[in-house]
Amino acid sequence: MQVTKKPRIKISCISSIEEARLAVQYGASALGLVSNMPSGPGVIAEEAIAQITATIPPGVSSFLLTSEQNVAEIVKQQQRCKVNTIQICDRLQHGTYEELRAALPGIALVQVIHVGGDESLAEALAVAPHVNAILLDSGNQTLPVKELGGTGRVHNWEISRAIRAQVNVPIFLAGGLNADNVAQAIKQVGPFALDLCSGVRRYGKLNEELLERFFNQVALAVNE
Fold it and tell me: The pTM is what?
């Protein structure tokens, strides 16, 4: 029997302490907390992010999803929210990764690449030396109202696979993942981690039945 390395699982759009506990109970190794975004689901106040983060157990990463493009503003957000990982959902425009790392020692940096065409590979290769991981998602930064995540759309996994094969940092795969397609995602892309929001939600709430089904499908996929 072939055994595939089991990807870690990050549950995003966490909106309460109860949702955080439920996700961890089912085996999430990271939780995504969404701060102000131009569009998309899951946005909560920074005060709520800080409250949830304080309850997350050791060994589970707390991700702040930020739309900020200014290093100084990202630093201020982290200091308010107290997360241990920054997920940069747009491109940095003011300041550098090195400045961000110097200001936030010990805080992991994850850059989102919104996978479109082959240019996404070049972007990932340029960013990889400066971050701890790359997250591949299905947003669109060119729209009048930017999509920076939470679209529920699957992107081109062949490009994601090429990125995973050529960069030397862990790859998180996001975008439209659910229990029905996760086995194919693992087989085709081979990511370090899976990241999902809508795939385990029903009527906007984290759903225990969908969580159980998703985690079961991951376990089956890696032991086929």
Answer: 0.94
